[in-house]
Amino acid sequence: MLANLTSVIEAIVASINIVTVISSIITIIVSLPLIVGFTQSMIYRLLRKKGRYEGIWHAYHFTSMHGKTLLRHEVWVIKRNIVNKLIITTKDPKNPDLEYKGVISKERNYLLILLKGGHDEEVQMRFFDIIPTGQDIAFGLAMGVDFDNKPQCLIRIMSRKEFTDEEARDLLLSKTKIKNPPGIISINDS
Prior knowledge:
Strand order of the largest sheet: 1-2-3-4-5-6-7-8
Strand content: over 45%
Shape: elongated
Oligomer: single chain
Transmembrane segments: 12-39
Keywords: Membrane, Transmembrane, Transmembrane helix
Structural class: alpha+beta
Largest sheet: 8 strands, antiparallel, barrel
CATH class of the largest domain: Mainly Beta
CATH topology of the largest domain: Lipocalin
């Protein structure tokens, strides 16, 4: 009887070892493509050239503070995150406390940018995509609030080139057309 019990226990232990080996092999087979894919993506990220959107951009727009119109300049850094999404960080050289972070997506021939500030503000933007134009400058519309906490819709420029205040002001004014009813801003076609 004891011999039968011993042989049953040995059979169970042998089957458990076989099941453990089989489950380990299955785990390796299932995990291997994930490990290889992750490693390939990391190597690709390290070796690939930056995309068309990635890098440093200069953004310009008008806003208002205490009833006065101001020209704002921001420096944008656009890069891809670990899952290959375009992310953006903005800084204002004149006001380092104004920092935004967000994501960029594409819809038809537009870049959609959603920014969130550390001061409980969200800004939505829609730019003409720079890919079809082949230029390193794009014009777009943004919605947010001004420094007086009033909603605003405004023209924005994003450019690889840094402009002087006068150049940026002239470019913005050349693309601005106020339509009726007053206060609606759109981009001039010319």
